Amino acid sequence: MAIDIRWDKRFEVGHLRIDSEHQVFLDLIRSVSLASEAEEPKPWCMRLLNEVRKYADFHFLSEENIMLRCGFPEYPEHQQKHAELLALLDERIHAYATDRINLEAVVVFMFDWFAMHTTKMDKKIGKYIDGLEE
Ligand SMILES: [Fe+2]
C-alpha cells in the first residue's frame, strides 16, 4: 500500500521561503513514490533519489542561512540534525543501490523524516521569526 504524499497545512512553518522549498522537497519525494509504485527501472529511480539528495543538501544550507541571519538560538542543534539526516539519507540510498532495501522503504523513511522534521523543528524557526517582527 503506497503512502499518500501530498502537501498538508500541518507542514506549514509560516516562513514563505522555507515553505516553498518544503513544497518542492515534498514533490521530489512524491516523484520517487510514484516511480516506486510504477516499478520504474532502477537507474531512473537512482536519478530521482539523487535529485532528492541534492535538494536536501541545498535546502538545509538555505534554511541554515535563514537561521543564522535572524540569530536563531537553536542553530547548532538544528544544523547538527540536518547533518545527521543527510548521513541517514545517504545510508538508505546506498542500501537501496546495493539491493538491501526496496525503494518503498526509502520513500517511507524520507516522508517520515520530512513530516517529523518540519512539524517539530522547522516550526520553531517560523515562530522565532514571527516573534522578532512583533
Ligand atoms: Fe530543518
Automatic annotation (TrEMBL):
Keywords: Iron, Metal-binding, Oxygen transport, Transport. One of its GO terms (molecular function) is metal ion binding. SUPFAM superfamilies: Hemerythrin-like. Signal peptide: none annotated. It comes from the Bacteria. Gene3D superfamilies: Hemerythrin-like. This is Hemerythrin-like metal-binding protein. It comes from Methylomonas methanica (strain DSM 25384 / MC09).
